[in-house]
Amino acid sequence: MSKETEELIGSEDMDASAVPDSDADEATRTAEEMPVTEAPEEKPEETEDPDEEDSEETEESDEEEDSEETEESDEEEVSEETEESDEEEESEETEESDEEEESEETEESDEAEESEKPTENAPLNEKIMAIKSALWVQEDERQQAETKLQIADKVKKYKSGIETGEQPEHDAAVPVQDAQKSAKEAAPDKKHGKKKSKKKKAKKKQKNSVFPRKGDKPLDVVRKCVFLASSAIFVLCLALIVEYFWNNHYNSNLNENLSNMYQETKPPKEQEQETTEPPAEEYEYFGFLPNAERLLEINPDVAGWISIPGTDVSYPVLQRRGNPDGNEYYLKRNIYLEDAHAGSIFMDYRNDFDYVIDGKKQLANSANLIIYGHNMHDYSMFGSLKHYINDANYYGEHPIVELNSNYRKYQYKIFAMIIVDINDQSDTRFDYWNQLEFADEKAFYDYVNEIKRRTIRLNDVDVKYGDELLTLSTCNSTFSDGRLVVFARKVREGEDLYAGTQTSTANPNIKWPNSYYRWNKSTYDPEAEFVPYG
Asked: What is the DSSP letter of 341?
C-alpha cells in the first residue's frame, strides 16, 4: 500500500466519528483496489500523472468534506452546550422560584399554624424567633467581617505589588471592587442610616451656625443677622463700659497723686525763701504758694486749686485765659493734656483771677468766678455736688468752698443751689454763665435775688453788694441740657466761717424754668412772701 493511501486512510480514520459507517467502508474499498506504484528514486523529467492528480483532487475534496463536517459538528456541539446551559439556567430559575414559593407557602403555613396554636406556646415562639434573629444578626456580622478581611487582604496585596514595582493584575483589582461592592450591598441600611445622620448633623450644624450660610431659610438669616448685630452692640457696649471705668480709675489715681503733691509740706527754710517779699517795693507782692510752681511746671494753664472739705472735691483748676475755645478745651483733657473722659476742672476763660506778672497783680479779680466740671457717676470731679439738692443734711456738713490761686488762699460760703435749663428761651431764662461783672448795685441784687428765688434750699447766709461770688457749674439730668449750679460768696474778713449755714430749709416756692412745668404741676407763686438780699 502506498504512502498516499495510508495517509488517506489515516485521515479518514481520524474523522470516522464524524462520517457515517457506509461512507467509511466505501472509502477503504476504493483505496485497496487502487494500484500500488512506487515512486522512482530519480526523476529526470517531471511528468504529470493523471492518477496522482485524481488522488490529490480526492484528497482535497475529502479534506474539504472533513473540515465542513468538523465545523458542523463543532457548531452542533456549541448549540447543544448553549441549549444545555439555557436549560440548566431555566431549571435553576424554576427550582429557585419553586423553592421561594415553597418557602413562602411554608412560612405562611407556619404562621397560620402558629396563629392557630394556643396562646400557651406564644412565649416559646417568641424565644425561638429571638434566637433566630440573633443567629441571623451573627451570620450577617460574620459575613461582613469576612468581606472586610477579604477587602483588606486584596488591598494589602495590591499595595505590596505597587511598592515592589510589580504591575498589579487587572483581575486582582476586580475582586477587590466586587468585594467592596458586595460589602456596600451587604449593609445598605447601615450606610443609609449614616448618610441620614450625617445629613441631620449637617443641617443641625448649619442651623446652629451663627453666620448666615447658603441654603438658610429667610427667617434663619434674619435671626442670625439680628443675633450678630446684637452681639456686636453688646461687645461695643461692654468695651465702652470697661473703657469708662478704666478711665475713671486712671483719673482718680492721677488726681490723688496731684493732691498729694500739692498738699506736701516743705521745710521751713524753703517756705521762707518762697514767701519773702522785696522790701523796697511799695505794691503788694504776690509770691507763689507752696507747690504751686510744681503744678505750673506740669501745665502752665494751672490757675489754682479748689477743694470742699469733707468731700471728694480736690482738684487743680485750669484756665485757657483769653482763648475763645477755653470753655471747651479741657472738657476731655486732663492736666497732662491727655484725652480723658472726665476732663478737668476749669475756670471760664473770661475770668480774671490773681493775674500776676513778676509778683505784681495786674488786674482785679472778676466779681463772679465761674468754674466748670463734669458730673461723674462715680462722684469724681463735680459729681458730688448733686448731694446738695438730694441730701437735706449735706449742705450743713459741707457749706465751705476753698479756692486757692497760685499766690493766695480764699474761702467761700455757699448760699444757694439751683437747676437751670440752658436752652430755655422763655421768660424764665437765666444766663448765669454770662454774668461775670455787675454794672451797679441794682444789677448785683437783681442777680443774687433771682438766684434766691430759684434755690432748692434756703439758709441764713447774707449776701451784700461788693461780695465776690463763686459759681460751680455741672451737668444735671432734670432737663436735656440741665445744669446744677452752686453759688457761694467770699468769706469776709473777721467773719464766722459757718455763720448762717446751719439753718438750711427746703424752699417752698421754687421758681423753675417753664420747661419743668411740662411734666410737673406749676407751684410757683410770684406774689408769695419773699425776703430779698440787701
From this structure: T
Closest CA to 405 of 363, 347, 467, 354: 354
As a whole number of angstroms, the distance between CA 294 and CA 307 comes to 18
- Please compute Rg for the chain using Cα positions: 61
When pLDDT is cut at 50, 70 and 90, the band that residue 129 belongs to is: confident
Residue at 286: amino acid letter: F
3 state SS for 17-86: HHCCHHHHHHHHHHHHHCCCCCCCCCCCCCCCCHHHHHHHHHHHHHHHHHHHHHHHHHHHHHHHHHHHHH
**CA 371 centroid distance within chain:** 45
Q: Do 513 and 479 contact (CB within 8 A), yes or no?
A: yes
Instruction: Tell me what the mean pLDDT of segment 75-93 comes to.
Output: 53
The average confidence (pLDDT) of the chain is 78
- For residues 308 and 319, give the distance between their C-alpha atoms in angstroms, rounded to a whole number: 19
d(C-alpha 52, C-alpha 40), whole Å: 14
pTM value? 0.60
21-25, 225-229, 364-368: least confident range: 21-25
Identify any residues that bridge with 400 across adjacent strands, giving them in sequence order.
Answer: 413
Looking at 111-115, 195-199, 382-386, 485-489, which range is the least confident one?
A: 111-115
58 vs 41: CA distance, rounded Å:
25
In whole angstroms, give the CA distance from residue 238 to residue 227.
16
- The per-type count for the chain, helices as H runs and strands as E runs, is 13, 12
> How many whole angstroms separate alpha carbon 329 and alpha carbon 162?
82
Please tell me the distance from the alpha carbon of residue 366 to that of residue 350, in angstroms, as a whole number. 9
pLDDT digits (tens, 9 = 90+) for 95-109: 555 555 555 555 555
Contact 30, 9 (CB under 8 A): no
Q: Enter the DSSP assignment of 306.
A: E
The whole-angstrom distance between residue 7's C-alpha and the CA centroid of its chain comes to 101
291-324: pLDDT as tens digits: 999 999 999 999 999 999 999 999 999 999 988 8
Nearest to 353 by CA among 333, 368, 374, 373: 368
- The answer to whether the beta carbons of residues 227 and 234 sit under 8 Å apart is no
Phi then psi for residue 40, to 5 deg, are -65, 150
Find where cell 439751683 sits.
418
- Report how far residue 326's alpha carbon sits from residue 348's, in angstroms, rounded to the nearest whole number: 7
Transcribe 345-399 into DSSP letters: EEE-TT---S-EETTEE-SPPPSEEEEE--B-TTSTBTGGGGHHHH-TTHHHHS-
